[in-house]
Design brief:
Blueprint (H helix, E strand, L loop, with lengths): L34 H15 L12 H16 L9 H30 L6 H26 L4 H6 L7 E2 L6 H4 L6 H14 L6 E2 L2 H28 L4
Antiparallel strand pairs: 1-2
């Protein structure tokens, strides 16, 4: 069968009925709650709000206010489990995530500029600000992985995609795969380990878009951590 993932909303694929011979991630399931995803997004917005002024997008708090309003609208408008592919909910979710991602991307650029320009950076601002940007980046990429793997949470709940974009280790063991399917925390964990190790660890990207996201996240994380460490050596007491 051809390797096709992320089918368009105009070409829905039929949901698979429960079959004991299929692993859980290939069967039709009850779908994920949106609350854990909304909570992670809220944490990302709060981290952006707490950033030092020199690493923030101006005017201060404007984008964060827009993000919070959009996030509240998403949760109120689509509170149910994600049991099927919903074009409106998917577009709304991607728009909110895109806004958070762009805002954090600008903060990464500002952080790199402040470090490379040789400006005065108090150690606390450098470490806390850099840490907030790094962790927000982990949340953002975790949500990208969650949003696009096998067509998104709705498609995964239907079990309509046969070939995964991300190969979790449980998928390779018939005994584990029988009752296991990836949830949001699994994608967040993948993002964290990729940002920490600068490469895939236990979960492998299979599709080209997944490999591209892994590359971009690793590059951002490596540059951020390397520059912060290099600058911290020179500004921390006793250095």
């Amino acid at each position: 069968m051809p390797y096709v993932t992320g089918a368009s909303d105009s070409e829905p694929q039929p949901a698979l009925t429960h079959h004991s011979g299929l692993p859980a991630w290939r069967r039709s399931t009850e779908g994920e709650q949106r609350w854990w995803v909304a909570l992670a997004m809220l944490v990302a917005v709060v981290l952006q709000t707490l950033l030092p002024d020199r690493f923030s997008v101006h005017p201060r708090y404007l984008l964060q206010a827009i993000e919070l309003i959009a996030l509240a609208g998403l949760v109120i408008s689509f509170p149910d489990r994600m049991v099927r592919r919903n074009a409106r909910a998917r577009a709304f979710s991607q728009a909110v995530l895109g806004l958070v991602a762009v805002t954090n991307g600008v903060s990464v650029v500002l952080l790199v500029h402040q470090i490379t320009a040789g400006g005065h950076l108090p150690p606390v601002q450098l470490l806390l600000g850099g840490g907030e940007i790094w962790f927000t980046n982990v949340i953002v990429f975790g949500m990208w992985f969650w949003e696009y793997d096998r067509g998104g949470p709705g498609s995964r709940a239907q079990g309509s995609a046969e070939v995964p974009d991300l190969l979790f280790p449980q998928m390779t063991d018939d005994r584990l795969a029988r009752d296991w399917e990836p949830e949001f925390f699994d994608y967040l964990y993948v993002s964290y380990t990729n940002a920490t190790a600068f490469s895939p660890t236990d979960t492998l990207p299979l599709s080209r878009w997944a490999k591209l996201l892994f590359m971009v996240q690793s590059a951002i994380s490596l540059v951020t951590v390397a520059l912060i460490a290099a600058r911290a050596v020179n500004i921390l007491p006793g250095s």
